[in-house]
Write a structure and sequence with these properties.
Elements (H helix, E strand, L loop, with lengths): L6 H14 L7 E4 L3 H17 L4 E4 L2 H9 L3 E2 L2 H4 L4 E4 L3 E2 L5 E2 L6 H9 L4 E6 L12 E5 L4 H14 L6 E4 L1 E2 L2 E2 L7 E6 L6 H9 L4 E4 L1 E2 L5 E5 L4 E6 L5 E5 L13
Parallel strand pairs: 1-2, 1-4, 2-3, 4-7, 7-15
Antiparallel strand pairs: 5-6, 6-14, 8-12, 8-13, 9-12, 10-11, 15-16, 16-17
Helix pairs in contact: 1-2
The protein binds ribose-5-phosphate.
Length: 260
Amino acid sequence: MSGELSPIDKAKFVAARQAAEFVESGMRVGLGTGSTAAWLVRCLGEKVREEGLRIKGVPTSTRTAELARDVGLEVISLDEAKWLDLTIDGADEFDTELSLIKGGGGALLQEKIVATASDQMIVIADAAKEVRMLGGFPLPVEVIPFGWQSTQALVEEILISMDVMGRQATMRMNGDRPFVTDEANHIIDLHLSRIGNPRQLSMVLNQIPGVVENGLFIDICDKVVIGHSDGRVEVRDINEGTVTESQLDFVEDENLFRDI
Ligand SMILES: O=C[C@H](O)[C@H](O)[C@H](O)COP(=O)(O)O
């Protein structure tokens, strides 16, 4: 990638740049997956090279692990880290309670395990990810391949019984084959348009035997760093209820602009 960033990439970049300031030397840091999290990984790589930041990173997917190593981060497994100081990740949607939909890139399982094993989770997002009610983005549900069609039928039955809007469930495809996650599972996307009670839906979905996990992150995220394409960054904190705002410059750094 070279030259001018698109407005959306500028927004993702400034969110990542700001969030990288929460990372301190000595920390064990969960590294999210996706295009926004990739900016974070690049920013951390830059801080390691330029400022001597010393951290151990736990990636949430094979592609994040690859990028993290490429930019010079020390990568360890969650089992080696056991517990993390902080996880920084992207999201597909967030609401006013900082509940999230994640898994657009299929990494929701590792992402939820890593975020839950962290003292703090910070989400980085462009402003378009903010919604009044979750559900506009299809909700990913990770299922084991064995009997996935029966699992999908059970999911659909539950959506009907809960009277959830939309109700359509589709197998995520990669070409003409089902998409396969890092854990060798499949993803069923639920096209719901609005999720009135995300907590209840999450609990009910996870009770179906073939369901491994779903992309609703409830009471996991502590802060959202929201980037705008003009360089403005807002930070919302669930505990302190604070909103801070700052303005970041775009930094022309060839290393940061490498393709994922
Ligand atoms: O599985 C993917 C992750 O949950 C991503 O963090 C999420 O889809 C957001 O991705 P992006 O930053 O590319 O919009």
